Amino acid sequence: xxxxxxxxxxxxxxxxxxxxxxxxxxxxxxxxxxxxxxxxxxxxxxxxxxxxxxxxxxxxxxxxxxxxxxxxxxxxxxxxxxxxxxxxxxxxxxxxxxxxxxxxxxxxxxxxxxxxxxxxxxxxxxxxxxxxxxxxxx
Length: 138
Description:
Radius of gyration: 36 Å
Distance between the termini: 100 Å
Number of strands: 7
Strand order of the largest sheet: 5-6-7
Largest sheet: 3 strands, antiparallel
Order of helices and strands: HHEEEEEEE
């Protein structure tokens, strides 16, 4: 292979296309994160760092340059909402339906009414329920 001038276009072909592939993967991660979390306002960043280190020849003159590439992507941190928890024997408890206040009673915690188990007495039209008479509303 002949010598080629280093440019942004030739960078994509270097190292068997690995640098371009790494860039494409970073671009996809950032795009997917934007789609997944559009309400997160932080910027998604891709940085290509080109490091150039001079290599001196025997006379102390510039003989060549070692060039390396680092590709980094940065996404906003992933976090959850804050849960208010209560310390109990054996650990912490939380209320998923009321994450901001563990002691808040929610509908799933409300006392459930006892089911009527009575049967209507055909003689007097009253229903017997748990030992009490309840008049039918007819």
